[in-house]
Structure formats: C-alpha cells, structure tokens
Amino acid sequence: MRQRVARELAMKALYARDIGRARPQDVLDYLCAQEGVEGDAAREAAELVAGVWDHLAVIDRTISATLRKWQFQRLAAVDRNVLRVAVYELEHDAHLPARRSAAVVIDEAVEIAKAYGGGDSGDFVNGVLRQMARDRSAEGTPGS
User: Fold this and answer.
1) Structural domains of the chain, with CATH
2) Is 32 helix (H, G, I), strand (E, B) or coil?
3) The whole model's pTM is what?
4) Could you say which of 12, 16, 60, 106 has the lowest number of CB atoms within 10 Å?
C-alpha cells in the first residue's frame, strides 16, 4: 500500500511538472501535506521523483524506443508519467530487487493508469511495459 501511494504521488508531481511547469518536489511537498502522507511513503515518493528527474532524458528515450507506431510527444500526460515512474523503477532503481518485483511494478503502473488516465490508459501502459520487458529479454539484458 505504501509503495502504491508513493508511486501515485510521484506520478502526480511529475504530471504537474508537465502541465504547469511547477517543480516536481514542490508539488510533491504540497500533495503530501494535503493528503496527510508522511514517513516512508513520503520518502519513497521523493526518491521516485528525484530518480525520475535525474534520469529523465534516458527514461524518455527508453519509452520512445519501445513505442510502436506512436510518438512520445503524443502520449497523454498521465500515461507518460506513469511510464516514467515504472521505467525508473525497472531500469534505474538499485533497490528494486529488495523492495518489489518487476511484475508488481508493472501491475501497479497499470492500476494507476486506469485510475488516473483515459479509458485505454491501463491497456496502453501494460502494452508498453510488457513490450519493454520482451525487448530486454530478447537482448539478454541482465535483470529482465
């Protein structure tokens, strides 16, 4: 539950950055205060936001390379940011094996996309992340 809350908060903060050009950490601080989130969930959300922000260009290139017949710039802002958080966790989070499995990250990304995105967001996010997993497996990338 704590990790789901952290992922949702991270996605919302990154979404706000895309829409309003606010600093993601400022938005995250506001959201945590508004929603009464503190402790481990707030720290995890801050780690996710900082991690995505630090690796943003690489994450966006990874997502773009996985898209089939779709352009990154055309992604809905919610879908884009759900994918960013999931890709960060799957590709860059050194704590992933200890804290959660790849299947859980993908499943929760799909659920968050369904909750906050459009009607097809869950299926779209699932398709992109599953394709990424297949691509990594075919490449023989460690950890896939």
Assistant:
1) 2-139 (1.10.940.10)
2) helix
3) 0.88
4) 60
